Amino acid sequence: MDVTITISPELKPKIEAEAQRLGKEMKRVIEEILARAFSPHPTLDELLAPARKEFVESGLTEDEIDALIEQERKAMASVSSKRQLEANRETSTGESKQMDLAEIDRILDELAEGGENLPPLPSNFSRKDIYFDHD
User: Fold this and answer.
1) Does the pLDDT at position 21 exceed 80?
2) Could you write out the DSSP letters of every residue in 19-40?
């Protein structure tokens, strides 16, 4: 189906810039924008419903959940800080250290530490739930 639309002078440069950034024709970018606008995306409430249900069923108080989240946030910040220090050390010495599989496993284990206390994601959760606005 062919449709003719008039794009405002304010919007046209934005679409052109996006098309150039993506290496696509303007027409294709507009088609993708329209497709995304009309594709069914779950609402935040729908995405969070299973987690909320598990929260209620867990019997934990809001304070206990807050404490778990804060604990995980601190653990993630700690791992991130360690990696940043290592990266800074490598940069300052001019050396580039290739990570071996054992180092990668150690980092992943640190990231996962304490994760067993977190509620699972909904069974229908996917990459599209995070990146619904682009490929």
Assistant:
1) yes
2) HHHHT--HHHHHHHHHHHHHS-
What residues contact 75, with CB distance under 8 A and at least 6 apart? 110, 113, 114
The more confidently predicted of residues 9 and 44 is: 9
44-67 average pLDDT score: 84
CA–CA separation, 126 vs 135, rounded Å? 13
**Which residue's entry shows tokens 């739930």?**
129
Domain boundaries, the chain: 1-39, 44-130
CA distance linking residue 48 with residue 55, whole number of Å: 10
The answer to whether 133 and 36 have CB atoms below 8 angstroms apart is yes
Relative orientation angle of helices 12-22 and 26-38, to the nearest 10 degrees: 100
Residues in the chain: 135
The mean per-residue pLDDT over the stretch 21-49 comes to 85
d(CA 71, CA 118): 11
Q: Which amino acid is at 134?
A: H
